Amino acid sequence: MFLLNSLEREEVQTALTSQGVDLEMAKQRVASMTDEEVRALNQKMDEMPAGSGIVITVVVVFLVLLITDIVGWTDVYPLVDKQ
Hints:
Elements: H1 2-6, H2 10-18, H3 23-31, H4 35-47, H5 53-70
Helix pairs in contact: 2-5, 3-5
C-alpha cells in the first residue's frame, strides 16, 4: 500500500514526529482506511504536482489522527479538548 510505504520514508517520519505523532499509531490508522478512502486519496495524489505526495501523506495522517482524537478514539494531541 502506497500510504503505508510512505510512512517508512525518513522525511515523512521526521515531519510526523516533529508534530508529535506516534508513528505506530499513524500506521495503524492508515491501515484501517477503507479501500474507497485509499482510492480517493490516491486519485488526488495522482492529480497533484510531483513531490507533493509526501506533503499529502503527512496531512492525511495528521487529519486522521486529529479526527480520531476529536471523537475520543485516541489521545495523540494534548491540545484537543475531550468532552
